[in-house]
Specification:
- The protein is an alpha/beta fold.
- It is 37% helix and 13% strand.
- The chain has a 5-stranded parallel beta sheet with strand order 7-6-5-8-9.
Length: 312
């Protein structure tokens, strides 16, 4: 992550957004405030004449579509890119690919990659700005930002909120970015799941650990439900999907005692695995609000990065 920090007035000064770890509360709030302004007036020419390239080597629906809409609404040119049909498959490095596209005039790279931490050593070697759209099990900063934005919009604050993150914490970049962001803004976080899906020593990140979802929900203002990432598991870490749902699936019965607890999910949703349909579609769900807010949050990120580049 770039070393620049924001000024005392909350001006964003970073070239890249690689993660939420190390960002100050003021920097995060600057993004959330900018997103609020874009949500009210969602069309801008802030990135007119700029080019945004998407380098995705893993599948994406919400994140890529949301970023593309954000770039278009800011007036940018969008360069589509498929890793499956690129020179990356011929052995070209990610850095060389980016340098070549940068030479063609690309100003921003939005990158999703299967390798954790792949972007940190690259960011300082290119002039273009890089936004991390998810790297391995490391971070997914804009997903956490839209989660924070949705919570702040619905609850009026982040500080003091009690948030439960339940599911496959071990493989989740969303969980890590959410923990960094929630803790920076003063929320209390509990992670919940089977012991096999909780990283060792995660308490060092300032969170509580629970293996009982009903108990974890007792004082929760919101629960963020993560899917089982079976594709990342190299061994069977749960006995069965049905057993997992019985113990850790968010059902209407389990949620009923907590009518003020918001339900979030980063998607894609596996109904009947980590969440019941009547909860995902129920009155406490803000899942579609998250999706809608993602466009404004990603507009805010691209716009603030552009302002920082203009000062560079």
């Amino acid at each position: 992550m770039a070393k620049e920090t924001s000024s005392a007035q909350g001006v964003w000064a970073r070239k890249d957004l690689l993660g939420l770890e190390g960002l100050s509360a003021q920097e995060i709030e600057t993004i959330l405030d900018a997103a609020a302004s874009f949500k009210g007036a969602p069309v801008s020419d802030a990135l007119a004449s700029r080019t945004v390239a998407f380098l995705f080597s893993e599948p994406s629906t919400r994140t890529r579509s949301s970023f593309e809409m954000a770039a278009h609404r800011l007036g940018a040119h969008v360069l589509g890119f498929s890793a499956a049909s690129s020179s990356l498959l011929k052995g070209e490095s990610l850095l060389d690919t980016m340098k070549n596209l940068e030479a063609m005039g690309v100003d921003y790279f939005v990158v999703r990659h299967e390798t954790s931490g792949v972007l940190e050593p690259i960011a300082g070697l290119v002039r273009a700005s890089i936004v991390n759209a998810g790297d391995g099990a490391h971070e997914h900063p804009t997903q956490a930002l839209l989660d924070l934005f949705t919570l702040r919009e619905r609850k009026g604050r982040i500080k003091g909120l009690r948030v439960v993150i339940v599911g496959d914490i071990l493989h989740s970049r969303v969980a890590r970015s959410n923990i960094h962001g929630l803790r920076a803004l003063g929320a209390r976080v509990t992670v919940c799941g089977p012991a096999t899906l909780i990283p060792r020593q995660i308490e060092r990140m300032g969170v509580r650990v629970s293996h009982d979802l009903s108990a974890a929900l007792e004082d929760a203002d919101a629960v963020n439900v993560l899917r089982l990432q079976l594709e990342r598991q190299k061994q069977n870490l749960v006995t069965s999907v049905s057993d997992y749902f019985q113990s850790f699936g968010l059902t209407a019965e389990r949620l009923k005692p907590f009518p003020d607890c918001l339900v979030l999910h980063p998607g894609p949703i596996n109904r009947g695995v980590e969440i019941a349909s009547d909860v995902a579609d129920g009155p406490q769900s803000v899942i579609l609000d998250q999706v809608a807010n993602g466009v404004a949050v990603r507009m805010a990120v691209l716009s603030l990065l552009d302002q920082a580049r203009g000062r560079g």
